[in-house]
Amino acid sequence: MSDVTLRKLVKRYGEVEVIHGVDLDIADGEFVVFVGPSGCGKSTLLRMIAGLEETSSGEIRIGESDVTRADPADRGVAMVFQTYALYPHMSVEENMGFGLKMTGHAKAEVKEKVREASRILKLDDYLKRKPKALSGGQRQRVAIGRAIVRGPEVFLFDEPLSNLDAELRVDMRVEIARLHKEIGATMIYVTHDQVEAMTLADKIVVLRAGHIEQVGAPMDLYRDPDNRFVAGFIGSPAMNFVGGSAAQDGVLAPGLGAQTLQVAAAVPGVGTEVIVGIRPQHLALAPGESHLVDLVERLGGVSYAYLVAATGDRLVVELREDDPAPRPNDRVGLRVDASRVMLFDASTERRLR
Ligand SMILES: Nc1ncnc2c1ncn2[C@@H]1O[C@H](COP(=O)(O)OP(=O)(O)OP(=O)(O)O)[C@@H](O)[C@H]1O
Ligand SMILES: [Mg+2]
C-alpha cells in the first residue's frame, strides 16, 4: 500500500513558519493536486514528502512506514521537477537508466526497465538521441521516464509542465493522466494552474499561506467552495465578487444592478453586509444602462465581456458564440441567474450556505 498520511506537519525556516500544521490523507493510487498562489507552500510540502526538506514537526507516513526522518532514497518516492536537468552527454536511454545503474542494478534489469518506461512514454524512437536533439516535451518525458524506471510507490511532480508552451502543456497533461491510469501509482502533483488541477486531480488540495483551505474532488470544490478564496481560485475565468447586503426578500448587490436577488443561499439578517459571488457564465447581458463595457475578448466558442459597474466593480460576463457581442464603451444591462449566486461572510469570507 502506498497511501500517504500527513499529520500536523510544520515547516520552519529559522524563525519563520511557512507550513502551519497540515493534516492530509492521500489514498493508495490517488492523483492529488496541490494548488495555490505563488509562495503558499506547495513545493515545500512536496519536498517534505520527498525528504528533500527536513520536517520541523509532525509526521509523514507512506504505507505502513513513518518516513518523517527517512532518507529520500528510502521513501519509495520519485520526483519530477520543472527543470528536467538531463545529463547532456548521455543518450535518452542512459539518462533514464543512470539512477538504477548507480544503485547497482544489473545491466539487463536496467535495460528492461528503461524499455518498459520508453514504451509507456512513447520514447522508443528516441532512445539513442542526446537531450539537445529533443523537444521540450520529449525532454520532460525523459525526466518522467527517469522516475518511472525506479518503480516508486509515490510519484511527486513539481510544476512539471510550466516550461512548456501552451499547446504542449495540454498534450503532456493528457499524457500524465494516461500515465496515472496505466501505472496506477499514487501521484502528488504541484501546480498553480487551476486548469491542470481541475483536469488531472482525483482530489485537489487548495493551499494558501501554508494552510489547507479546502480538500475535495474538482467539481465539488467548483460547485461547493467553503470560502471566497477557493471560490475565486477554482474556475476560469474567476468568479465575480461584489459587495452586497441582506434585504427583506433577498440580497441587494448594487454592482450587479438595482434588482433584489432572490438567492438560493441562506440570507443573514436584514442589513448584514455580505460578499456576493457569481460566475461569469451565470451572468448575461440584457437591455439597460447599468454597466459600461470595457473590453470584449472573443475566443471562438465563447467570448468574455469585461464590464464596469457604476459602483466601480469590475465584472466578467461569459457570452456564447451566437450572443451579440457589445463593443467597448457600450452601456449594457445585466441579467443575473440569482439561483447561482453564492454568499460569503463579509469579514470571515466563509461561505453562507
Ligand atoms: N530556504 C528558505 N528559507 C526561507 N523561506 C523559504 C525558503 N524556501 C521557501 N521559503 C518560503 O516558504 C514559502 C513557501 O515557498 P514554496 O516554494 O513552497 O512556495 P510555492 O507554493 O511552491 O510557490 P511557487 O508557486 O512560486 O513555486 C515562501 O513564502 C518562501 O518564501
Ligand atoms: Mg513551487
TrEMBL record:
Residues 4-234 form the ABC transporter domain. Gene3D superfamilies: 2.40.50.100, Nucleic acid-binding proteins (2.40.50.140), P-loop containing nucleotide triphosphate hydrolases (3.40.50.300). One of its GO terms (molecular function) is ATP hydrolysis activity. GO terms for cellular component: ATP-binding cassette (ABC) transporter complex, substrate-binding subunit-containing; maltose transport complex. Keywords: ATP-binding, Cell inner membrane, Cell membrane, Membrane, Nucleotide-binding, Transport. InterPro entries: AAA+_ATPase, ABC_transporter-like_ATP-bd, ABC_transporter-like_CS, ABC_transpr_MalK-like, ABC_transpr_MalK/UgpC-like, Mo/tungstate-bd_C_term_dom, NA-bd_OB-fold, OB_MalK-like. Belongs to the ABC transporter superfamily. This is Glycerol-3-phosphate ABC transporter, ATP-binding protein UgpC. It comes from Limimaricola cinnabarinus LL-001. The lineage of its organism: Bacteria, Pseudomonadati, Pseudomonadota, Alphaproteobacteria, Rhodobacterales.
